[in-house]
Design goal:
Blueprint lengths: L1 E6 L6 H9 L4 E5 L12 H6 L10 H12 L4 E7 L4 E8 L7 E5 L3 H9 L12 E8 L2 H15 L4 H20 L8 E4 L4
Parallel strand pairs: 1-5, 1-6, 2-5, 6-7
Antiparallel strand pairs: 3-4
Helix pairs in contact: 5-6
Amino acid sequence: MNLVVVCGPVASGKTTYVSREYSRPGVLILSCDSYFLDRGDLSESARARVNYDEPDALDASRLCEDVQKLMARQPVDVPVYDFVSHTVVGVRRITPEISHNTLVVEGHLAGLILRDLFQPRVGETLWMPRWRACIYVDTDESVCFERRLRRDPVVRGWTPDDVVEQHLVHTRPARYKYVEPQKTFATEIVVVAAS
């Protein structure tokens, strides 16, 4: 099975790009958004202070395990994450079929998390499973911010003030610290215009 990794800034258009380019028979799509850690053990105010833009906010080991299983055509139970409560509210089973020849993994830190598993290393044989492509969806920061202002109050139940604070305190610094460096190992950079 081929692995395609799609990464880029929050609200850059990754999900839209994946839907447009890869929603077809033979392709499994896995979103890293399903792998945010369950914060049910924290108070509501403590959950609101968690930095969800940091790599530690994701269950990276489970994501890597699930990707490896899917690549081996084994079923996985993917968490169902609720962005309003910041908790895992269930699971959904993904069962690869013989006809599936591509796995697309999409998320703002997907390249960073999966790079060590799937990038070729010196001395390894070429038959080892590796990504076919790592696509970085590049969108201007102001466009991403405007999209979040429209999306997050509707989808995540945040107030506009919550979105502004999240952007300034967490999202913007993480973009430059973790997200943009993924460009250096991307096999393709797709520039998305404002919409």
